[in-house]
Amino acid sequence: MQFTLFVCSLLCALGGRFEVEDELLEAAARSSEKEQDREECRTPVDVMFVLDGSSSVEEDDWDALKRFVSSAVTNFEISANETRVGIVQFATDARTELALSDHPDIVVTGVNSLKQMGGTTNMAAGLGLARDMFTDNPRQARRFIFLVADGDVDEASLPLAREIEENLGGIIFSVAVGLFAQIDDLRPLASHPSLFYEVDDFDALGDIVKNMTTTACKASGQNLGVGVSQIDFEHFSGAEKQEEAVQQVNIQTDLVDECFLDETFAKFNPVFEHWTTLAALAERLIYEEDTTILGIFQSFVKDKLASVSQKLASVQSPKTFAKSLGKNLRKAVKKVNLEDAQLTAAEIRDFMNLGLYNYVDRGTAQQQESLKRLEDDLCSGMKSFMKSVAEVHSPLYEHGGYLWHMWQEAWGPVRIFVKVTTQCKVDVPRWEDANNFLSNKQDEWAQCKSAKPFPENQFPSSVMPCARRDDEQNASAASSPALDRNRMVRFLGCGASRVQIEPPVLGQLTDGCLQSDRAEIKAFMTSLCGGSDLSKRECDVYGPFWGVYSAPLESLYGEESYQKKLDCQSQDSSDGLHTCHNPQVEAFKGMINRAAADYIYGSLPPLVTSRSRGWQEGVDSVTSWQPGMAYPLPQERRLDPPLWEIMREAEEGIGVMMISYGFSGSGKTTTLIGDSEAPIGRGLGVDGVLSLYLQENAQKISSVQIRIFEVYGRVRASDGTLMTEDGSGLWAYRVQDGEADLLGSAAAFQDGNGNVDFDALKRKLHEPSYTVTLTESDATPPAVSMKLLLTKVEKLRQNARTFAAGGDPIAHIRGTVNNPKSSRGTLLVLTTLHYKSGMTGTISAVDLAGAEDPGTMVGGFINFMGHENNPQCTRPGTGADADMIQVHMHSMHDYDQMNSQLGECFFLREMLVSCDPSNPAPDCIDITLSNGRRSMVRPDSTRGWIHKSKRAASQHSDWTFTVGRVDVTFTHEEVMDAYAAGAPKGLSSFKKSTSPSEFQWGEHLWGRCIRSSKTGSCSTTQGARLDKLALDKPLKKNEYGFEAKACKDILTCGVPKTLIQMSGSERGKQFRNHASVSQWQSTRKRFFAELQAHMAQYEAQERVYTDDYELHLRYFTKAIGPLVQEAMFINEALNEMKGYLGVWAQHSKKAGPGVKLHDLWPPVEFDILGRDAQTIDSTPGSRISEEGYKPWKFIQSVSDGNYAKMLALGQDHVMLLTMLEHIRLEALSKEKDTKVLVGAFVRTDAPGADPNCDGTRASLRFAQDLSDAIGWRRDTPGALPHLY
């Protein structure tokens, strides 16, 4: 009876704090049963709880820790002759919470009054205080310490633990709680491996109480004279002890009836998906810190949950409500063994991908039996999971679909993520062993586009993301919560934009992600924003975003690879049998492949070892993700959530719109849609998230309808008008016919008032010729067919002839320095999914055109320079290349102006190769030169720069003239300077008679002086070198004469007097009749003949160079110059989209859950948004010609007006918003909402045309602008704690 009253008093004191937890509320009612079940300790025991009270333990977790203590003490008889209880708490230091006591009431008070200290982790102080308490309160009793911690272990703790065991006979139970606990350090603190416990969270402590207290009481029966090290703890631990093992499934067949894998999977999969979403929701609710999101979610669901739990519905705090609900869901997920089911599902995926279902009746009898056993085991695993689910029955779990949908609603209609990638087309296929692929598939790597390497003293990336769960293992536990809630991306830059203070990666890789007092980390963090306000564009820390996707930091940094390089270099490589790889390259490889579409979509990670693959290879294997799991399970990804979380909303009829933004070459198209022509993938390329969705949900879908459209446009850089006569407007693809139709410009879809006529647009877009239907009965699966369709569309877009209807045909996919296949229009892939459930949903992929600052884009092809004779080549006060591009941006498409007024002002990038006219590639362009010659060319690898007249030294050879055995060499520059100088004035008649008149400029070369070998200056006394060699004797300068008037250089104009008749009547009038004269004359004749031949060769070469330059300039103005016009159109469309999505998000927030937005169009807010516009006017002295074009600002035409402000009236001249609104209205017509995922894609490497990584910064700024517009601002307190 005394024990029952003790339990009641303890629980009554604590109950007010924990009324949400059902287990505790029912504890008092079960107390008499507990009294019967508890273990009687045969000897007196002293129990000391040593508890971690540092700041890493959250409030709810502290409550759970107190429940653990209260539950544990109820398993001991507290009295003077039996059990005494004490409590020590440690944080920055330690304090006694309860001195050793044998009075139940005092213990109740001690537990109830526990207040968390907060601070850092000083475990040694806690163990030292427990030791002192035992020492100061001696008696003949077995002593136990229950040590519970979730974080760091300092160096002094282990020696203290051994001291307590050896000197005081203390037995230590060590409990590691949570994902950040330092397991390797906490395990040795236990007195025996069986006394170490590992639990996922504090709520799970209740699961180990019985085992711990039972083991303690059994161990207390050992004679006190027996040392701790001599006790056989294995004998006491019992079957309830959780053993640490590699996570794997080896399901034993327990079926009586035959199982059919496909039929069982059809039943298993919907249940499995439901519980996967519940698991994901549980983790999101527990770890989400944004109280606004949590408050919205609570307001949505609390009335619904009132029928399940009145106490839960009555909780006021959104954070407490979310964590309580999340922990309840998490417990249920553990009970159904979801991770076991996920391993089973991963094995089934391997089984089906390898086609093993077709091999059941083939092979040897042993092989058939082995395969049948595997199939039966998979069936058994699925049935076991479904049985567990059936046993966990609760109305709460039945509401899981509703809770999941409301969680999506709480986040609003628009979410933004950042995808960090590199320019490379190699991805690990999902069926490949990732580690093996990375190591051994070098032929695929050879096809990877190389990136510019970073110096070895730099973090090898332009950005530093910190969102992946598998990075946390490298972080210190005390600081890990800062990492776990870090939705930010840090821009480090490249070239001139590189940060001055590098991330401190020489310690932990994640140091640059964490809040810290270390000076170098604080300096790095602060330097990213400098002294600027966080709301300013200059701040280079971006976010918070809904999700951030990248490779793990260890792959990004290549630390492991660097060590491998050092090990390699230490080996003897004299035999040449091995090569040491550059760690930057190894990091680059890991960075690409571990951020593949499978990871972003949220597929289960590929198995490291698989029974299916083992059967195929003839070896025994297990189903396991260890060691080296490629990426975390979907439910564990809190900051990089799988995109299927949103895409599955389509199954409820909700529209899903995925939008990708980024500079060309950042992987937008491949990630969203896939690439059927990637150099791997068994002929099927790589999947994007859309094809992955179709693939993984094929069993649910009866048919898919695909319609593909494109918004393309160009804006005149001179006045801002839309170039509707050159194909600007909406295009539709008839994929089966291999053609594209220009549906028209905005005017084609306007009503009588000039407003968008959405009904007319819908009728046109739904014409049957633009729809391709894919069904499950097709020979090719819809997921594969869709990739192949998009490949056909890509080829059409690469061919200028596809767009002949546009007036001035130009390919919509063209090569740039950043990307060999840069999309210049926005592609819209509209998929309508007909589900077998009868529901119809839509998933639309909006692949935005490759966004660029037009100056940056053109800068990859042209390099301006100053020119002393042409004021057009220099902007007053600057002369910088970027400034000149801005000034002359309107001229980039005009060949005549570029060739005449600006011809000497720039170099062009040399990059063209010839095409086969009989079978031209899609990106070939036919060009006619001014001499009538036609060439068909396309861009390829860059080879350097070419100029209209300036030539590199290597382009023209020097000229060597030989006299006797002496070679006299004239550099190309010397020859051209002589040619430019023309015939010298005052030239002697004797020289004129021995040189062709058109080559008398060559006298500058003939009369070259003899230079001093020491000073390099001309001799003031000696004659010309060639005269000396021709006459075979030295000459003095004063021996020259017979120059004409105006001669400036006697060696050039005059002749040696020794050649001239100096006596008689012909004195000074004719050459002497002497052999030396004949020799001199013949040498000069040969000199000018060879000079003439050299110049003929030069002129032939120059014609080639001139034609090549003209070819490049004509290509530039025809294919590259329009990039400026396209970029202005693209940027206007993107800026309008930012405003539109922001307006949409704000309307949705005001309307509340379930309210459909029928009045979003026209977006009247653009009347205000459009006020900050720049007028496109190339007139000298105009504002834009002085300040330059700004990609992030709206544009205003000189004649057509402000395009953004027209949207407020319902008039859309650009048409991107028209198409986005059409997609939204399609769902709205069925009274369904639309969810929008916007991805900003950034490159980690420095692109060839963007050495400062301005494209990456622009993409992050775009994402930040949009994030600010929908209400996720980085200057929100708490987003960047290290800067507040």
Largest sheet: 10 strands, mixed
Would you count the extended β strands for me? 36
Indicate the percent of residues in helices. Answer: 25-40%
Helix count, per DSSP?
46
Low-confidence spans: 1-38, 238-256, 424-431, 437-450, 473-485, 557-562, 573-578, 587-595, 679-683
Give the overall pLDDT as a whole number. Answer: 80
**CA-based gyration radius:** 40 Å
Structural class: alpha/beta
Amino-to-carboxy terminus distance: 56 Å
The outline comes out as elongated
Strand content: 15-25%
Walk me through the structure.
This protein has 1284 residues and is an alpha/beta fold. Helices cover 38% and strands 15% of the residues. The protein contains 46 helices and 36 strands. Strands 8, 12, 14, 17, 18, 19, 20, 23, 24 and 36 form a ten-stranded mixed β-sheet that branches. Helix 11 (261-287) crosses helix 15 (338-353), helix 11 (261-287) crosses helix 18 and helix 12 (291-305) runs antiparallel to helix 18. The longest helix is centred in the C-terminal third of the chain and has 77 residues, at 1075-1151. The N terminus is likely disordered.
Features:
1284 residues, alpha/beta, ten-stranded mixed β-sheet, six-stranded mixed β-sheet, 46 helices, 36 strands, 38% helix, elongated, disordered N terminus
